[in-house]
Amino acid sequence: MENYAKPILENTKIPQNAVYGIYEVLIDKQSDNISLNEIERDVYLICNYEGEINNGGFDQFLFNGYNTNLFDGEFVKLTKEALLKIKANKNAEFIDSAMNIVGESKTGAETDEQAEQLSELDNLFYKYPEDLSQLQLNYIEEHIDLFIK
Length: 149
Description:
Structural class: mainly alpha
Domain DNA mimic protein DMP19 C-terminal: 35-143
Number of helices: 7
Helix content: 55-70%
Shape: globular
Number of domains: 1
InterPro entries: DMP19_C (IPR025402)
Strand content: under 5%
Pfam family, one: DMP19
Distance between the termini: 6 Å
CATH class: Mainly Alpha
Radius of gyration: 16 Å
Largest sheet: none
Protein name: DNA mimic protein DMP19 C-terminal domain-containing protein
Order of helices and strands: HHHHHHH
CATH architecture: Up-down Bundle
């Protein structure tokens, strides 16, 4: 079995690019129906979280997170847990806030007020109070031997 993360980390100088390189491998594993271990799943979820919010905000993250078949409908919950594992506590709080804003909705914002509140939360996220790439990189390095093809 081959470790795919070590060469990516060794050959990539920018932390964000290294994390994204590993994420691309994880996307391929998911596409090929290869199970991710817990550590890989955490990295996958956090990369997806950041991408969803950068693409369409918390409204999109919640909509896609609740309506995906991945991880038995636990996508949003598991993403929050993954953020806590890497010590991205502020981002985990963002997820709590987003879920409190939409309540029981599984489609994201259903009112203009909810959409406005989620937009305000998006703006807090865009200030990047935590360096998600560096936190993920630290997490990957702590568990480097678990990134196996």
